[in-house]
Design goal:
heterodimer; A: 160 residues; mainly alpha; Four Helix Bundle (Hemerythrin (Met), subunit A); two-stranded antiparallel sheet; 2 strands; B: 152 residues
C-alpha cells in the first residue's frame, strides 16, 4: 500500500468538491421542472420541497464554512430557508456558483492548522476536518431527499 | 486532528448514519418495512440491506483488510423480509469494524487500498464515499418511513 500525503489546502478542496458535487445533484433535480413542481412537498409531515432542499443545503454549507472555518461573522435564518418558495432553479444555481467560487477562495486562504483546530459546533468542540465531514454527509443526505422527492413528484404528476 | 482521530471520526459518521437508518424500522410492521413509495423506489428493508453491503465491503473488507466474503445486496435480501436479521448483522458488523479499526495503523486514511471497482484508492476516499453513500440512503429511509407512516 502506498501512502498518499495531502496538504491542508488540497484536503479542504477535496471536501469542498464532494460537497459541491452533492449540491449540484440537488439543483439538477429541479432541471426542467415548473414553479409548482419545485415547490411541491411529498405527502407527509415535515417534508421539504426541492427548492427548500436546495436553498437550505447551500445556505447551511456557506454559513458553516464561512463562520466556523473562515472565522467570519454571519447569521442564518433557518426558518426562512425551510419556508422558501422559488420561481425557478436558475437564480439559485447562479447564486450557488458564485458562493462556490467564494468558498473555494476563502478556504484556499485558511491559515496552517485550520483543519486541526477545534471549533464550537452546536455546543461541541469539533476539528475543521470534522466540520467538513459533517457538511459532506449533510449535503449528501439532502441529495437522497431531493432525488426521492423528484421521483415522487413525477409519479404524482403522472397519476393525475 | 491526527489521522487516527480522523479515521475514528469518519467511522463515527458512517455508523451514526446506519444507526439512524436502522432506527427507521422501529414500530413498523413487516408490511410497512417492505413497502415501496414508488415502483422504482426502494423499501426500507432493501435500503438497509444495500447500505450494510456497502459498509461491509468498503470499510470492513477494503480498509480494515478483513477476509470477509464480499456481500451482495441479494445475499441480504435472501434473509427474508423481517428486519431482525439485518439489525443483528449491523450490531455484529459494527463491533467487528470498531475492533478492526483500533488495530489499523495511524496513517490508514492516507494509505491506498486495492478496491474491486475503483482500482487503487486512498482510504480517505473510500471512507468519505461511504459516509456520503450511507447518508444518502439514511435520507431515503427516513423519508420512506415518514411516507409509510403518513399512509397509515
Amino acid at each position: 500500500m502506498n501512502e498518499v500525503t495531502m496538504e491542508q489546502k488540497e484536503l479542504a478542496e477535496v471536501f469542498l468538491e464532494r460537497i459541491a458535487a452533492s449540491i449540484d445533484r440537488i439543483l439538477a433535480t429541479m432541471d426542467g421542472l415548473t414553479q409548482d413542481d419545485i415547490n411541491w412537498r411529498p405527502p407527509a409531515e415535515k417534508t421539504n420541497s426541492l427548492y427548500v432542499l436546495g436553498v437550505h443545503t447551500i445556505a447551511y454549507t456557506a454559513f458553516v464554512i464561512s463562520t466556523k472555518l473562515c472565522g467570519k461573522s454571519g447569521t442564518r435564518d433557518a426558518e426562512a430557508e425551510f419556508s422558501a418558495v422559488g420561481e425557478s432553479v436558475g437564480p439559485l444555481r447562479m447564486s450557488w456558483q458564485l458562493q462556490r467560487k467564494q468558498l473555494s477562495e476563502e478556504m484556499a486562504k485558511l491559515p496552517p492548522g485550520a483543519l486541526d483546530k477545534k471549533y464550537d459546533y452546536t455546543n461541541r468542540n469539533v476539528s475543521g476536518i470534522e466540520v467538513l465531514l459533517i457538511l459532506a454527509r449533510h449535503a449528501h443526505e439532502h441529495v437522497g431527499h431531493a432525488e426521492l422527492t423528484r421521483d415522487l413528484l413525477k409519479a404524482s404528476k403522472a397519476a393525475k | 486532528m491526527n489521522e487516527k482521530e480522523e479515521l475514528e471520526y469518519i467511522w463515527g459518521r458512517i455508523s451514526n448514519s446506519v444507526d439512524r437508518l436502522m432506527a427507521c424500522f422501529d414500530g413498523l410492521t413487516e408490511e410497512q418495512v417492505n413497502w415501496k413509495p414508488l415502483d422504482n423506489a426502494s423499501t426500507l428493508y432493501f435500503l438497509a440491506a444495500h447500505t450494510l453491503s456497502a459498509v461491509n465491503n468498503n470499510v470492513l473488507s477494503t480498509v480494515c483488510g478483513k477476509n470477509v466474503s464480499r456481500t451482495r445486496d441479494a445475499e441480504w435480501l435472501a434473509l427474508g423480509k423481517s428486519p431482525a436479521p439485518l439489525i443483528k448483522a449491523w450490531t455484529d458488523m459494527k463491533g467487528e469494524i470498531t475492533t478492526a479499526m483500533a488495530g489499523l495503523p495511524a496513517n490508514a486514511v492516507a494509505q491506498s487500498y486495492p478496491h474491486p471497482k475503483r482500482g487503487s484508492i486512498p482510504g480517505r476516499e473510500v471512507l468519505i464515499s461511504t459516509v456520503r453513500h450511507a447518508g444518502e440512503h439514511m435520507a431515503h429511509a427516513e423519508l420512506t418511513r415518514d411516507l409509510v407512516k403518513a399512509r397509515g
